[in-house]
Amino acid sequence: MAGPSPRWTNVALVVSAVGFLTFEFAIVSPKAQTGTSAPALAPAVSVVSAAKDPGPRGGDAGAGGPVEGLSGPELEYFYNSLDEFSDTEEVSLGLGPRMNLDSCKGCHVQPAVGGTSPALNPQVVFATQDNASDSVPAFLTSNGPAREARFVRNADGTPDGGVHAIFTISGRPGADGCTLRQPDFDAEMGRHNVIFRIPTPTFGAGLIENIPDSAIIANASSDAAAKGALGIRGRANFQVSGRTITGQTNNNGNDGTISRFGWKAQNKSLLLFSGEAYNVEMGISSELFQTEREEMGKCQFAKVPNTVTNMAAATPFEALSAIEKFAIFMRFLAPPTASATTPGGAPSIGNGKQLFGAIGCALCHTPGLQTGDSTVAALRDKPVNLFSDLLVHDMGVGLADGVSQGEAGPREFRTAPLWGLGQRLFFLHDGRASDLIAAIRAHRSTASEGNGVVGNFNQLSEGQKQDLLNFLRSL
After folding, report:
1. What is the pLDDT of residues 4-20, one digit of tens each?
2. Over the chain, what is the mean pLDDT?
3. For residue 37, what pLDDT is reported?
4. N or C of the chain: less Cβ packing under 10 Å?
5. What is the 3-state secondary structure (H, E, C) of the chain?
6. What per-residue confidence (pLDDT) applies to 407?
7. pTM for this prediction
């Protein structure tokens, strides 16, 4: 075991009384916040002077293909939907008038189609592509993550929280006569009023969609003593109008069932997730989101809604709207494949897995759940090794974004699934970290449910930390 843990200065974002983001500096002590004695741990396998994130795992992506066991027709739908997911949208098809990019694949491509933000941010090139007149805001860089921007508050101080699209169709092919201005991001950044989200990977999303609510609730109630000792609460994000049910999930406001997709578990299903993304990220309306987000008449170049069921189609697949095709692709997309030996070798990865459980990471990042019944045999009664409890947790002032969605408040986020972590480039909801150690320590700040676990991590020896990092990069 390592010696006494040092004290450090933690820089945290705080939502002020008027809702804007300000900075707080707090001196915290790992021992003071842990609240429990360090668990008995196996000695390190790795021998290092200082633990280091091994970085994204190389080699085969181990992701991007169909889930095992699909029928012939289901496979055909998967591959046809993959083509649709990969297509670039045009103004004549409804792109814009305001958007963040022109394709799903552009943001969901690391390490394969359906994943998350790539190494080269496509938004930077897109800003001026094809004679577009947009500029690149300061929060987007070529080697940084693709992002969407949300404003915390409206100009009158009331809550906003919605996506403010970064780009416009002005100057682009097919947008003659349309002149739009981008939001004044510089001014809003000066008011500490802008927060960011990066794309969530969609691998294994159909398995997640088919986990019964009862399994999520039962898991939330498990290991109560261990969770309580570390200050872990968590609740499902129930979207029930007018009331918050402490200790449960973020649920759909109509039927009361558990929502599970998005950074705050705000979306109930893959179809809703798909329709919202198509509308918010690309500005394309659908039968699910019928209204254009920018209704200026001279900037409309396609019928509204832009994508609908094709009732004159020659085949069943052609009859589907784009958002249904996108949902099918994600539903049939296989989970990522972990590595048994890379990085660090099997003994180090195995020891890191044991440490992951021993210090409390697995209390929120649940290693596995199980699907229930499904009309798709390939998704029925299957293990889901997602490393998430799908609950929303209070992550404290350090990760607070000031935005509420459903019953998930300004400091709450869904436990991010960790499968596929080994090949991700950017971490946390806004992509602020590209190093695993930084991402782990960002879970610790005033009032965060992660404080005790991060305190335990900090007390590991450097070799033990390396084993844990190797395990995470093997996922």
Report:
1. 333 333 333 333 333 33
2. 90
3. 47
4. N
5. CCCCCCCEEEEEEEECCCCCEEEEEEEECHHHHHCCCCCCCCCCCCCCCCCCCCCCCCCCCCCCCECCCCCHHHHHHHHHHHHHHHCCCCHHHCCCCEECCCCHHHHCCECCCCCECCCCCHHHHHCCHHHCCCCCCCCCCCCCCCCEEEECECCCCCECCCECCCEECCCCCCCCCCCCCCCCHHHHHHCCCEEEECCCCCCCHHHHHCCCHHHHHHHHHCCHHHHHHCCCCCEEECCCCCCCCCCCEEECCCCCCECCECCCCCECCHHHHHHHHHHHHHCCCECCCCCCCCCCHHHCCCCCCCECCCCCCCCHHHHCCHHHHHHHHHHCECCCCCCCCCCCCHHHHHHHHHHHHHCCHHHCCCCCEECCCCCCHHHCCCEECCCCCCCEEECHHHHCCCCCECCECCCEEECCCCCCHHHCCCECCCCCECCHHHHHHCCCCCCCCCHHHHHHHHCCCHHHHHHHHHHHHHC
6. 82
7. 0.90
Question: Would the pLDDT of 304 be above 60?
Answer: yes
Is 8-60+347-474 a CATH 3.40.50 domain? Answer: no
